[in-house]
Amino acid sequence: MKGWRWLAPAFVLLLVVTGWPIGRGIWLSLHSAPLTNPDDRTFVGADNYTDILTNRSWWLAVATTLVIVLVVVVLQLLIGLAFAVALRRVTLLWPVTRVLVLIPFALLAVVSAVVWRDAVTTGFADEWFKLGEVGHFGELVGVTVGELWRGTGITALILLAGLLRVRSSLMASAIADGATAWQRSRRVVLPAMGPAIAVATTYRALDTFRILEGPLLVDEPGAKLRTAPLLAWDTTFSSLELGLGAAMSMVLLAIMLLMAAIMVPLFRVRRVV
Known about the structure:
By secondary structure, this protein is mostly helical. Helices cover 75% and strands 1% of the residues. It has a two-stranded antiparallel ribbon with strand order 1-2. Helix 10 runs antiparallel to helix 13 (242-266).
């Protein structure tokens, strides 16, 4: 009970900081509130949620977002693991190397999106691979590559923290027992890295799911490839439907919570017996 005396202030502060915006968003999502006249609000109950959940365009946007998340997270885990192995072997200037891999993540997301969008459409990628007219889909690919480039460094450092949990004495014992490289990876390395893999996967999936800057830069009227956050932004600030936009935000929050609840146990690698 004494510990709660120390935790209570932080818990209350966290509850206020997170609870108030969420509560405000839920309350607003139950109203029809045009942004042109915020005081003209009409209680509509769950009508906004019904409109969203029965809207085909919404689910197409969610599916597009999930595809981007899947591609980005899988590639970041694979490339990040390779970087983590390389960083573990670096002994010269190791603090500098760990800072350098974070430079892309330190850049503004909009900067990364612009750079890679231009690279795919008119820059070096277009010139090297002779892409020609890539259109809106190619621009979205460029945005996806930009998100992949931006988050790989932080993913590598998270995986490196898990890799450092593998004791050299444990690996030496496995080698002495005649374990192959695959067996050592499957029975020693991956179980020790389980928490780091779960953290990296969940963090990068949730962070990528809210991708907005890149799709907003390549958005075109009538475009079919739109992400769910972009649709929420467009509803709120283009269509000026504040209540419907708040409802979309609440649905996105629910999807993200569901993703986290699924991925944390799913990607926690357990020891194989």
